[in-house]
Amino acid sequence: MSKSVGVVRSEIFMNHDTGYGHPECSERLVSIYGLLDQSELSKELKEVELRKATKQEICLIHSEYHYSVIERTKGKNTYLDGDTPASPESFETALYAVGGLLTLTEQVLSGKLKTGFALVRPPGHHAERERAMGFCLFNNIAIASAWAIKEKGLKRVLVVDFDVHHGNGTQHSFYDKEQVLYFSTHRYPFYPGTGWFNEVGEGKGEGFTVNVPLPGGVGDAEFDAVYTKILMPIAREYKPELIMVSAGFDAYYDDPLGGMEVSEQGYARLASIFMELAEELCNGRLIFVLEGGYSIEGIAKCVQAIILRMIGREKLVKELEEKPSGGLEKILNEVYKFQKHYWKGIEI
Question: Which of the residues 16, 66, 126, 186 is marked catalytic?
Fold first, then answer.
């Protein structure tokens, strides 16, 4: 049987050195790759050939100025902002992260692969057109989405972001465009301070940004309710041709930064929702892209839980036993208030 699930992985991604004690460290990938090898999941994945993204591809989202700022970090140890370091090989590593994701995207769109997971670093969803921030240099998922639109002629890409931090860079990349629907759940108030209910897009993009800010401490049942009651009807109405997922695992219950309570089973449930939507709406085309997640052991367990569903070794999680807390209803009603004008399928 040919392998239908692709993976982007390489020792190259260890070359982005964030320095001692930084949460976005290479040990995150060491842990993920190690668990995939140990559990023999690696044998069931098709490793995607790496390449470096071109300047032209990076500039689908970023300015030439931003590209040159990152390029000038070659051979140096420096900080691009207060928490975003660059090391001598960070620029090239970031190019490989984008390039690997682009190859994966091409293979999923061409039908060579059905789904895939880009296990890359540095992460990307905070990177703005002209600014590296929040551990991110280039916006991997935004570039891949823009590339699919420009090079493959896609008209509707759904980008889902469940990282505990709002993906400000991804939101701003498509805020005035209708070709990408950006859907985010994130803790609020929290870094980077964006992602309130009323941020819905502007111009042609109005209605194509959906933000669900959540308080600290919520877990599996609340996430399940949000994605079932808000994302699923919106996605069915939007009818994406590709689903891309910014997969940050810092809402995990043991994450040192996130302050949330999502478990491996909770992430498996989210993956099951995305897989169900992809099968129904876009021939199964679904790509996960690693973002945050700083529990070294936890991030590996969460990725493993998702990949087990992607390869079909474990059944999709159809429902959870827990029920959401009472405070969630107010949040769902607030989302409904801002989104009901754009999406008729939402019923709270």
Answer: 126
The model's pTM is: 0.98
State pLDDT tens for residues 24-61.
999 999 999 999 999 999 999 999 999 999 999 999 99
Cα 30 from chain centroid (whole Å): 19
Closest CA to 210 of 249, 147, 166: 166
DSSP-assigned letter for residue 113: -
**2 SS3 class:** coil
**Residue 20 burial (CB count, 10 A):** 6
Higher pLDDT among residues 251 and 2, named by residue: 251
Residue entry with tokens 């057109």: 129
C-beta neighbour count of 252 within 10 angstroms: 28
Record the tokens describing residue 214, joined without a space. 């959540």
Judging by beta carbons within 10 Å of its beta carbon (0-12, 13-18, 19+), is residue 32 exposed, middle or buried? buried
CATH architecture classification, 5-339: 3-Layer(aba) Sandwich (3.40)
Say how far apart CA 135 and CA 319 lie, in whole Å: 34
Instruction: Report residue 147 CA to chain centroid gap.
Output: 16
Rounded to an integer, what is the distance from CA 331 to the centroid of its chain?
A: 22
What are the structure tokens assigned to 333, written together? 């009603």
Amino acid at 302: C
The answer to whether 126 is a known catalytic residue is: yes
